[in-house]
Structure formats: C-alpha cells, structure tokens
Amino acid sequence: MKLLLLLISILFITILKAQNPIEKEGWELTFNDEFNAHELDYTKWQSNYYWGGRFNEGGLNYYGTDQFQFSDSSLIIVAEKKKAKNGMDYTSGLIDCNKSFKQQYGYFEIRSKLPNSIGLLPAFWLVSTEMWPPEIDIYEIYTNERNIIKTNQHWLTKNKKKRMQPKRYNTKTDGAEDFHIYAIEWSKRKIRWFYDNKKIKTSRKGVKYFTYKMHMIINSQLSDDNEMNLSEGVFPNYYEIDYVRVYKKKQTN
Predict the structure, then answer these.
(1) Does residue 208 belong to any structural domain of this protein?
(2) Hey, is 105 helix, strand or coil?
(3) Largest Cα span, the chain
(4) What would the pLDDT profile of 116-132 be if each residue is shown by its tens digit?
C-alpha cells in the first residue's frame, strides 16, 4: 500500500510538472529561479526587506541571514525557536528581489510546499518600492488552516484612502503534504488568482491604481493570529519552494 501511494504521488508530481513547463505559449519568461544551485543566488535575492529591515513592528520573529537549506531542486526556508540578536524568540527566513527585478503586469507563479506545524504564516506577495500600498498577496496561509488560501490586494484611491479586498479559498487539500502551484495574472483591468492552474478568483477592484512596478517577497512569518498557539508549534519547521517564475505577455504584430 505504501509503495502504491508513493507511485501515485510520483505520477501526480510528474503530471503537474508536465502541465507547467517553463515555457508558456503567449508568454515571455522575464525572471525565474529554479533553486538548483544549492545556495541562495544573491544576484537575485536579499535576505531582508527592501527597506533594510529584518523584522516587522509588533512581529514575533527576526529574519536571519542563514535560515536557508537546499534539497536537490528546491529552497527550504527554516523557521526556528532561536533567540535573535534583537531579543526575539524566533528566527525565520525571507527572500526579496527588489534590487534585481520589478515588473508591472504579467504572470507570477510559485510552486511550494507549506510548513506542517501551526504557528506560521508563509506568504508570496508583490509590493512596490515607490510607496505602500499597492500590494498584491498571491497567498498568505495560516498553518492551522493549510487548506485555506488567503488572497488580497491593497491600493490607495485618488482620495488617498487605503482599500483592500481579501478573500479566502478552500483548496480541500493540506498544502504541507505536497507541492502546489499558486499564481496570479495581473493586467491593466483585472487580477486573476490560480491554484494548480485552476482560476479561483478574479478582481477588478482598485486595479487601475496599481501603477507601479512591483517585486516579489517570499517569507515564513511566525504568527499567533487565527487562534494559533505557538507553544504547540513544532520547530524547526520548513517552507519549501521548488521554483519562482515570472512572465510578460508576448507582443503580437
């Protein structure tokens, strides 16, 4: 039985990869990291936020410089119960590509596997270095609800009022048991969210205000929100990223 389940899992992964080749018809690849080098590519990423910070105000963790491990073909962000230099009790990891890549509009995709313990909030999101908002949350997932994708977009109206449109989507799967593909297609008029190549949300609200190029951040944040009890968390814990890819529409004659 265990062998049969393993073979089914391998077959599923093979099919999923075949459905997501790096080349996409009608799209031009503009950025990617397949994480095959067994070390973080610092020509693409930095391990702190674009403004230089290594923690959030009121946050529970510090983002360290050595919270990364590698498998044969993926990046693993490690969250630990480890005292940080600033006195925080937890240390985790973050990667930010603001110095190497920014883009307005396009297709942004990640293939990842979630941490398997409560107390974490892994996220894949876009933000501008010009001002905040805008921000697009491709996903945020509380790890006590690993079947629930939280999507959101934040914008500033012409009257300088902050707005957002959050939505939850139930995948009916445990995102820590296997890799899944999460993506958005962002255009001038709308943003569409995808889970394993299936469209799960379309939003037009506020999209006209997304006038800046944005860059990607991937982080594994410690959290006691959403009724998560950190004392019940298992550490160290791991957030695994197989690849990140970005595309823009090919120009047609």
Answers:
(1) yes
(2) coil
(3) 61
(4) 999 999 999 999 999 99
DSSP H or E run through 3: helix 2-19
User: Global pTM?
Assistant: 0.91
19 exposed, middle or buried (CB, 10 Å; 0-12, 13-18, 19+)? exposed
CA angle 72, 78, 83 (to 5 degrees): 150
Q: Residue 90: helix, strand or coil by DSSP?
A: strand
Asked if residues 32 and 20 have their Cβ atoms less than 8 Å apart, the reply is: no
Q: Looking at residue 1, what is its pLDDT?
A: 63
The string of pLDDT tens digits covering residues 59-68 is: 999 999 999 9
**Does residue 241 belong to any structural domain of this protein?**
yes
Give how many domains the chain has, as a whole number. 1
Backbone φ, ψ for residue 114 (5° rounding) = -80, 160
Cis omega (within 30 of 0) on the bond before 115? no
Between the alpha carbon of residue 19 and those of residues 4, 162, 186, 196, 198, the distances in Å are 23, 38, 21, 9, 12
* CATH classification of the domain holding 224: 2.60.120.200
Beta strands in 115-212 (DSSP E): 120-127, 135-140, 148-156, 162-164, 167-170, 180-186, 191-195, 198-203
Q: Render pLDDT for 189-242 as a digit per residue (tens, 0 to 9).
A: 999 999 999 999 999 999 999 999 999 999 999 999 999 999 999 999 999 999
Token pair 């999460």 in the structure block, residue:
182
Contact 98, 130 (CB under 8 A): no
